[in-house]
Amino acid sequence: MDLSSFEMDNSVSCRLASQIPDVCRTEDCCLGIDEAGRGPVLGPMVYGICFCPVSRKEKLKELKVADSKTLTEAERERLFQKLDESRNYVGWALQILSPNTISTSMLQRTKYNLNALSHDTAIALVQYALDNGVQLKEVYVDTVGPAEKYQEKLSQRFPGIEVTVKPKADSLFPIVSAASICAKVARDRVVKGWKFNEDLGDVDPDYGSGYPNDPKTKAWLLKYLDPVFGYPQFVRFSWSTAQTLMDSKAVPVHWDDDEEDGEKAAQRQNNKSMLSYFSASAGGNDQSQTHKTHRFFTERRLRSLNTL
Length: 308
Hints:
It comes from Monopterus albus. The chain is of the alpha/beta class. It folds into 3 domains: about 5-190, Nucleotidyltransferase, domain 5; about 200-255, Ribonuclease hii. Domain 2 (Arc Repressor Mutant, subunit A), CATH 1.10.10.460; about 260-300, no CATH class. The chain has a 6-stranded mixed sheet, sandwiched between helices. The protein is built from 13 helices and 6 strands. The longest helix is centred in the middle third of the chain and has 19 residues, at about 175-190. It has helices at about 5, 60, 75-85, 100-105, 115-130, 145-155, 170, 175-190, 215-225, 240-250, 260-270, 275-280, 295-300, and strands spanning about 15, 30-35, 45-55, 90-95, 135-140, 160-165.
């Protein structure tokens, strides 16, 4: 599993995939879908698919694949190696959704919650398999939201494919267990090898499980909260845990009334408007001040604009 493409820019989503076994292009296949890292406030969420010929899906039982949550990290790594060694009839694909992708999606103006993001990611992965010639006849999915509605949605999107959506599918269907293992192995490796683009010095790697109710995770979030710019991109800043800490510990921000022009309001209060900081660096009227752009903007590849 080569994670270099994601590590080059861990602020965006990234797809990884194995080679498509030749047999999957000629025989009817089954495909399982599962995710890893839905709940944590730290790190990415990874969606995975695994597929193989229907005639060989019982072979997955011989590999003793199981729900990744019931396995140790070493067991998951060992089973992923077995799946990789079975590449002549097993294929997989992953979508790594960075914390930044998750949070910016959820906080955009048009409502786009985590369930919708999960559904769209799963659909895109199934479509990827079809586009690459996998002869899908059966799809098994661990449910996100009401199982019946999700199953109906997938069945309408992929007519001619038998779709089964069930809670705990990762413990019921070996092909979903295999997808679960692929997704969890990828997330574990990404989190363990996370490269911080922010200048944080020697980052404390002891952030616990990454789940909001973990005391170690809460302590880590408090330690690395910048009072002005918030969190590094390792953190899902849309999570209520992160927002609560920012509200209580970060510098408060006052937004002028939308009905009053921001420039005029700033002048009335003898303050500089937020816009003035951008216009100056973009070649605006105020050229007397020179200042270095804060790393928050350079790390996110943000730049000033003269016009909208």
